[in-house]
Amino acid sequence: MAKSLKIFAYALLSLFGLAAIGSLIPAIPMLGELGPVVTSRFGPWVTLISILGAVWLFLRWRRNRHKRTGVVASLAAIAALGFGYVQIQQIAVARANGISIDLAQALLATSQSAANPKPETMIYAAYDGQHLPLDIYRPKPGSNAAPILVYVHGGGWGGQSLKQREADYRWFVARGYLVISIEYSLSTATRHTWNVVEPQLGCALAWVGANAGRYGGDVSRLALWGESAGGNLVLNLSYRASAGTLEPSCAGTVPHIAATLALYPVVDPARMYRPVDPLLGVFGRMMGDHYTGGSPETFPDRYTAIASATHINAKAPPTLLIIPESDHLVDPQAAYAFEAQARAAGIPTRLIKMPYAEHAFDLGSGSIGNQLVRQSMLRFLDDHGMTP
């Protein structure tokens, strides 16, 4: 048993060392993806474990002088220094943006999970024989109507669900927001929904505009929030709504959108089709094929229609973009170029770059990345008239 534990410890600490190298040098194949994932998933724990492991192995090496022990001790030390440096840099970015990171909370970070308050589910439309639901999370009753935060999930337009970030919904509800999470028709290999989803979501927003008041919401203060493919959708929805080109698939009027919050959005789906990383490129191409029916070369007009830059206009709402700098699925450079175009068009924008972070870096509830995202969104909403 003791031998098995020793082998496991050696393997784990070696893996941590290699992952830390990948965090610092994201261009290394596979390790460049693994490192940021390990950092965001395990947070400060990975640094503490690496420090303890390095000390333990160094003491063992002093006694036995085994080459293998020395190599693993070196990898553990690299892990401790590398992960520690990465997390210090991420905390520094948070502080530069006026955000305080609670390390005790980060140590207790968990994956997103369902929690109270439980949602009220309503059906806003139907498509292809399927009901389209939305979940409503009410804040505690107060004297004033609550600002509304509408969430559109990611998943490459073909996965995940409206319950994707329930722990985050609860966090915002506790701070006085009415949170509404919307489902839409997911794409498949045989069902291409590139021209279906945005009108559907326009219908959902019209439903919110007509009904949110019954749930304590203030429709004059409504923001959209989404990540990845959902980030693409909320940008397109809000920008098209401001330009008057969003036509809901049902009767009703899309309400004014006061702010847009997009986390690592797919602003340029054609660019995701030719991604930074060959391994994740398989997923990028599959998502594009399923959503549009083919490649950018086959359907250039479809990719132009769903590209967020196509819809930039001076009336678009203030926009927050949070971008992980080591994203191997969605090229960060596309988001930087989009932000520059939006700013040049007169759209109030804020861009936060999270160093050494991968796609979906914030999904551990209470993690360093998650704290940065939640608090950055909250500050942005406050700055744009959406204080509860």
UniProtKB/TrEMBL annotation:
Q: Which GO terms describe its molecular function?
A: hydrolase activity
What are the residue boundaries of the BD-FAE-like domain, all occurrences included?
134-339
The superkingdom listed in its UniProt entry is Bacteria
Task: Give the matching SUPFAM superfamilies.
Answer: alpha/beta-Hydrolases
Transmembrane intervals: 7-30, 42-59, 71-88
> What are the protein's UniProt keywords?
Hydrolase, Membrane, Transmembrane, Transmembrane helix
The protein's name is: Alpha/beta hydrolase
Instruction: List the source organism.
Output: Sphingomonas psychrolutea
